[in-house]
Amino acid sequence: MEHKYVEVGVGPVSFADVVAVARDGAAVRLAPEALTAIDRARGVVEELAASATPAYGVSTGFGALATRHIAPELRTQLQRSLVRSHAAGSGPEVEREVVRGLMLLRLSTLATGHTGVRRETAELLAGLLTNGITPVVYEYGSLGCSGDLAPLAHCALALMGEGDVRGADGNLAPAADALAAAGLAPVELAEKEGLALINGTDGMLGMLVLAITDLRRLLRTADIAAAMSVEAQLATDRVFAPELQALRPHPGQADAAANLVALLADSGVVASHRGPDCNRVQDAYSLRCSPQVHGAGRDTVEHAAVVAGRELASAVDNPVVVFDGSRDGRLESNGNFHGAPVAYVLDFLAIVAADVASISERRTDRFLDKSRNHGLPPFLADDPGVDSGHMIAQYTQAAIVSELKRLANPASVDSIPSSAMQEDHVSMGWSAARKLRRSVDGLTQVVAIEILTAARALDIRAPLEPSPATAAVVRRLRDAGIAGPGPDRHLSPEIATAVSLVHSGEVLAAAASVIGELR
Questions:
Q1: Which CATH superfamily is domain 5-200 in?
Q2: CA of 95: how far to CAs of 144, 293, 406, 460, 502, in Å?
Q3: Does residue 5 carry a catalytic annotation?
Q4: 0.85 exceeded by the pTM?
Q5: CATH code of the domain occupying 208-515
Q6: Which positions ≥6 away from 32 have C-beta within 8 Å?
Q7: Each residue of 368-392: pLDDT tens digit?
Q8: How many CB atoms neighbour CB 389 within 10 A?
Q9: Rounded CA gap, 241 and 488, in Å?
Q10: Which one from 5, 56, 138, 344 is the annotated catalytic residue?
Q11: Residue 281 vs residues 55, 269, 274, 276, 284: alpha-carbon distances, Å
């Protein structure tokens, strides 16, 4: 089978490129124009290396040690020492998709021709990705300023043939052995290269791109969950009408409401209480305001996507090679490695995950309370008192939502000085990204439990018929082995199956098979 390749040029990689390499294991190659740009910038660095004038990162130490001039015979040792000393991560091993994402994004910056690395160094990084060699990176070590230093240093260490990696089969191996088995030779880093390999926001940015990808799917899936809850709790769909949404023209709100209208179309359950005998005046906020909450989440995700797009188009390094239209380049220090723009939106998205999960849990809870569920049995139990139904599934949701509220506390408002006060303000963007991954996972579980509970309630409403779209979702759950209403059974496996269907996008696909792609 032929590899799927992502070609890295001088321009930005796309969200789809990041997902393809990080999650799908796509191979990578450098475009010819990228190699030309890399060679051009390398020429500038080599001229500076030969000069008697000190240049930061080329012939000096780093951070607070930048005043030390390094003699030419010590400069390869300088680069090795930089990488070895900065590969100081600790804690649990970071996920493969995160490491592959940050490697791709570092390669993308190298390809811009602003870092000054040699082409063989960039090509080796591409070779690791193509051969599925993933350096072992650890949870702790990045302050999100001067780049994701420790995580990137562990990747640079592998290019030197040092440290541990995981092969395409997932097995742990020394980097030197894995490189040799793939026919790759380690590099001896030259001037500026160690610094260029570790001085970027690539880890936090890769996690941001993956989180945006997941949240776009999850917010549409949350609309499905909300529609099923509105339907099974005998609420009205009239509040989702486009003329009402137009009075408050937030685009995300309009999209969420349009999804709810489409999902509830032709529902026999909704039609059963639409007549003049219905005495319901207004539904609870968790039902009626679903488009407002889900829509605000959408708009925040799209703001984060704008920021991510700008960062993907950036060349983050310090110092950088700049040309200003002239043929003679120069090396300039800068502060573009500061992760604040990325860190802020990572924190924003943790708020989205917490609040969308919160409203989902509230909708689920209404199913279980006989005073609020409009004729359904307590806790949707088969024989209430003997059976507990979905009582504890809501406990699980509540525990996750409580955790998500803690994770919504922003990391980016914290800062701790480092490097003898030279690096006296940092972004904590890596930390924001790490907690966002937990938040996205928590939201997936909460939405899945709502869908699981709503499906049970819709079955109990029989012989009333749900809408074709929500019926397709219920059918997908049943086809996956989740049984309909009945006496209590081991619930955890059913929750796990529902989580898998939400995570994979199969719930979304089931609804889309009836009404087309959701907005």
A1: Fumarase/aspartase (N-terminal domain) (1.10.275.10)
A2: 18, 31, 22, 41, 20
A3: no
A4: yes
A5: 1.20.200.10
A6: none
A7: 999 999 999 999 999 999 999 999 9
A8: 24
A9: 39
A10: 56
A11: 73, 17, 12, 11, 10
